[in-house]
Amino acid sequence: MGWDKNGRYYTRSRRVNGRVVREYIGGGRAGELVAQMDAIARDKRETERACAKIARERVEALDAPLAELNEQADLLIQAALVAAGLRQHKRGEWRKKRGEHESGTSTG
Fold first, then answer.
1. From first to last of its 108 residues, what are the pLDDT tens digits of the chain?
2. Engineering a disulfide at 10: which of 25, 42, 100, 104 sits with its beta carbon 3.0 to 4.6 angstroms away?
3. Are 22 and 13 in contact (CB under 8 A)?
4. What predicted TM-score, i.e. pTM, was given to this entire model?
5. Where is the region Disordered (predicted)?
6. Is residue 5 packed enough to be buried (19+ CB in 10 Å), middle (13-18) or exposed (0-12)?
7. DSSP string for 80-91
8. Three-state SS for 97?
9. What is the edge-to-edge ordering of all strands in the sheet holding 2-3?
């Protein structure tokens, strides 16, 4: 977006079907007004982007303690399942250990 090299007329770039197309706006007062409107729209988009970033950061800050509590709960559950004699099959479901007796021999 911008004025040509000599500052005679204003053009606007936009994408059409994946290609960049320059749109001639005009010179003089009309070009100045459209350039100002484009600058206002650009500032608005930047402000909205900054607000969205702040909102994301707030959510992440609120989510961090919950994520830590979730990790601790997972560890506690895993410890309880191992203590109950289960094992985790291929990092997936928990299963009872097969074929172990109190003497440590398996039946076969």
1. 677 666 688 888 888 999 999 888 888 888 888 889 989 999 999 999 999 999 999 999 999 999 999 999 999 988 998 888 888 887 778 888 777 655 555 554
2. 25
3. yes
4. 0.55
5. 88-108
6. exposed
7. HHHHTTEEESTT
8. coil
9. 2-3, 9-16, 19-27
